Amino acid sequence: MGNKLTLRSLPERFSHLLARILGVIKGQSFYRHRAPVRLTHWINALAILFLLGSGLNIFNAHSRLYWGKVGADTDHPFLSIGAVDTATGTRGITQVGPWQFDTTGFLGWSKVDGEYVSRGWPDWLTIPSYQDLADARHWHFLFAWILAINGLAYLVWSLWTRHVQKDIWPTGADIKAIPQSVIDHIKLKHPTGEAAKRYNVLQRFAYLGVIGLIALMVLTGLTMSPGFDAVCPWLIDVFGGRQSARSIHFISASLIVLFVFVHLVEVILAGAINEVRSMLTGRYVVPEEHK
Amino acid sequence: MVKPADITRRAAIVAGFGGAGYLIANASSITLSPSFARLSRGVEDWTRINQHALLAPGQLAKEYSASDISPVFKANGTFNPGTDEYTAHVARGFADWRLTIDGMVSHPLSMSVAELRKLPSRTQITRHDCVEGWSAIGMWTGVQLGLLLKTAGMASGAKYAVFHCADNLTGEPAKGGEQSPGQYYESVGLVDAFHPQTLIAYNLNGKPLDIAHGAPLRLRVERQLGYKQAKYVQRIEITDSFAKIAGGQGGYWEDRGYEWYAGI
Fold first, then answer.
1. In B, which residues are within 8 Å of A74 by CB distance?
2. Is residue A150 in some structural domain?
3. Helices A201-223 and A133-160 meet at what angle, rounded to 10?
4. Any idea which fold B61-256 has?
5. Would the pTM count as exceeding 0.80?
6. pLDDT tens digits for A26-70?
7. N or C end of chain A, less CB within 10 A?
């Protein structure tokens, strides 16, 4: 019955979804997330939040991105955010490749305490909210260490207990199920019963992807360090130069933001209360199969 | 039935999220607190200890080829010290400019630029990374600082080389209420001072340094960020502590909240 989308079944589907989001789910309780996963998840979430906020403040100190070994004022950025004086007053202009966008009020030219100022990212997105490179760097390196140590602990634990190999690495059957999984995701159809006890294939790829992105963030971050470059000079070449590494750092951060957005939407759709509870206590109510 | 373990766990979850929420809501004001400054110094020390553990003392920064040299090497900070004294030096082609090395040394030195130019030199094409994020590659020629320091002879207990400069950057107020003078200065530990790529440089890209890039003499410490590369260097003071110099943090930007260890 549940497979065909008919006009009659639509309100029923909607009420199912709403009940799911609100946590009204009938089913057996299942221990889904072990304590190390839960703990490292929340530490990671906090670290990423602070790294993103302080990273945007750091970016504002030189709001241009280049490709290659070097890049400064006279070189050509592939992305830049800045304030430009025009006949109609100062505008915030964001340039991406050959394109220019007027982003006044958000990027390049935004209000701080009621007054417009020249600023890459606006104050409500940066940590600290006021523009200060030294202070932003303090937050960034504090949470960079927390992210790296937490991430390493997670990786060691999940490889040791085979969490990655068993729960995250896609199986052959998973790969074959990709088209079906894509359709299910588009239809907002979430697994029930036994299938809800394991990660689906798109979930597996998303989690593997975000683990890879975090590793890339750490490596490109280290490549920007002149001290670490003397330890591993080859790392600069792997990323095509220090300015390329800085740009990849920014692009990876953007992809992590995209991941977080999709992740939060899926948490809500799959049952906000049930999902958040499972990441707090480990207990997850496995939705019964639709009758 | 609620078990005591559950209550402990609930308390831990509530405390954890409460703490995180407090941190997020008050991040800007926490930044300005003395305890956050202490924590940041701790993180900086931890970074320095880790990088030094990985770095052999003489391990070189990457050197580039001539084709990598930036067509325009961006100048930053002071573009011209502009004092009467400095302007007079410019007019005389820095003929009377002296570099002195004093403090905890056995033989204090005082040398002219011409005398320095006669000493064995080193030329290196390296990347300059500004703390702001930009980079430029340039070819530097100068005397290895280690050579000068060996001649001067380090007294026992010497720990730092402090570079006193001719430029005054008064624009930026010092942090934490402690007003420090705007005279530019910098300092490095003796490991970096004796590093083979650490130069008292007098040429950029084969030409004598221009005013914007620190004429007549500047420091190159290639494993650290741009603000360590002091320009217009007049005096190198060897000391066991920089606590009593200016704001006490070891440099102009350090007095304004930046890390003394600028390896990252």
1. 71-72, 74
2. no
3. 130
4. Sulfite Oxidase; Chain A, domain 2 (3.90.420)
5. yes
6. 788 999 999 999 999 999 999 999 999 999 999 999 999 999 999
7. C
